[in-house]
Amino acid sequence: MRNSTSSASVPRETSKIIHRLAVLVSGSGSNLQALIDAIGSGELPNVEIALVVSNKANAVGLQRALTHKIPSLYLPWSMTRPEVEAKLATLFPLFQVDLIVLAGWMRIFTSDFITQYPQCIINLHPALLPDDGQGNTFTTQDGSVIPIFRGLHVVQRALDAGIKVTGSTVHYVTPEVDAGPMICRAEVPIEDNDTEEMLHERIKQVEHELIVQAVRELTD
């Protein structure tokens, strides 16, 4: 992993350090696209996407990467977790990656892998998480206390719980699943007629803003 705070890696003619991202996706890659657009518009002026990785060959996220001529790689589900992690551990320094962004990546890393990259892996989670990532409840802006939903199927679980607000959180990845410190988050109201698909789509719209905000905060 390249040291993004070292001026030795920056050309003399610029004072800007270019931060290089690896974005890991499993699906549509809409959050990847949000980052691509933010870089293209100048909203993330000192950021570039060095590598996109997917564990699904037909992931739209891979097509987005190819369209924008971003180096991309398919690591199939058939590979074991140690095999995937060994491959990534080789690729990250090769592509001089500073920050690893899990944007809909559906594989869980081992503790040994995560601890190699302290505060260098961030994740988008479609639910509200506390500041420190710990605990079993979260207090919303209106004072409501709701349960913390970690792991899978959290959008449907929020609907099943009958709560009135959920949201999304960008957090640091730690060995405990969905329990790392929060970087940024936003609340999303739950409507009476919401289905899982409807609610998930509104959460996605918030996530597109959150992932850009998180990367901007970490690379300014």
Structure description:
- The two termini are 18 Å apart.
- Strands 3-2-1-4-5-8-9 form a 7-stranded mixed beta sheet, with helices on one face.
- Helix 1 runs parallel beside helix 6 (196-219).
- Strand 2 (47-54), helix 2 and strand 3 form a beta-alpha-beta unit.
- It has one domain (17-219): Formyl transferase, N-terminal domain (Rossmann fold), CATH 3.40.50.
- The longest helix has 24 residues, at 196-219.
- It is built from 6 helices and 9 strands; from the N terminus they run βαβαβαβαβββαββα.
- It is an alpha/beta fold.
Task: Find the CATH topology.
Answer: Rossmann fold
CATH superfamily: Formyl transferase, N-terminal domain
The neighbouring-strand order within the major sheet is 3-2-1-4-5-8-9
Helicity, as a percent range = 25-40%
Figure out the total of helices. Answer: 6
The CATH class turns out to be Alpha Beta
CATH architecture: 3-Layer(aba) Sandwich
Shape: globular
Class derived from helix and strand content: alpha/beta
Low-confidence blocks of residues: 3-14
Cα-based radius of gyration, to the nearest Å: 17 Å
Count of individual beta strands:
9
Distance between the termini: 18 Å
Primary descriptors:
single chain; 220 residues; alpha/beta; Rossmann fold; 7-stranded mixed β-sheet; two-stranded antiparallel sheet; 9 strands
Short description, anyone?
Helix content is 32%, strand content 22%. It is built from six helices and nine strands.
What layout of secondary structure does this protein have?
Elements: E1 19-25, H1 30-41, E2 47-54, H2 60-67, E3 72-74, H3 81-94, E4 99-102, H4 111-114, E5 121-125, E6 137-139, E7 145-147, H5 154-161, E8 165-172, E9 182-189, H6 196-219
Parallel strand pairs: 1-2, 1-4, 2-3, 4-5
Antiparallel strand pairs: 5-8, 6-7, 8-9
Helix pairs in contact: 1-6
